[in-house]
Amino acid sequence: MNKKKKIFLITIIIIIIISIIITFYINKNVLPIIKNYSVAEMKRVATTIINRSVTDYTFENINVDELFIISKNKNDDIVTITLDNRIINIITNKISDVCEDNLRNVEEGKFNEIKKNFNIGEEYFSIPSGVFLGNSLLSNIGPEIPMSFKLIGNVNSEILTDVKEYGINNSLITISLEIKVELMVILPISSEFIMIKNNIPIAIKIIQGKVPEIYGGNLIN
Prior knowledge:
Blueprint: H1 3-61, E1 68-72, E2 78-83, H2 85-107, H3 111-118, E3 126-128, E4 144-146, E5 148-165, E6 170-186, E7 191-208, E8 213-215, E9 218-220
Helix pairs in contact: 1-2
């Protein structure tokens, strides 16, 4: 083997070794940082969209008094409070649809609509490659790494109720909506599944008199 072939072979071996070292370093040190950053950002974006969707719908469409069916005894004392399941089902289905539609807009890249409603633009869906340096001053350097998410299945919602004593001889009833959604965070180099679960109050009512029994939803003591 002549000298040129030896140099060429050594060069190839060095390049392979350096490539293996770089790949190992990226897999061990860089990818976890980028994954954690992207997951945190996508959770923040999705949570903002879900919370705002629920709040906007609740503010515009829910009359708190219509949610309850109140039974009284002959002394006009409240004995039981029943949630109106027909109205509750309409609300949970509609809110789930609204949340899913807004999340789908993000998934499909309809950023103009999302920017207008949630002040979330396309700039939220890229990662400065400098974040892996771990220095806030250098985090914005380098090319941007695009990221996105994909909705896995449907948005699921469930009504929860909480009844507590409030002041003297009163009770405070809180109705919350628990939203569950599974997303797949997509990066050019990997993907990650995340579950987002939010508990959002949608109605609060003060009942004067002794704490009544309440039916419909999950009673939390």
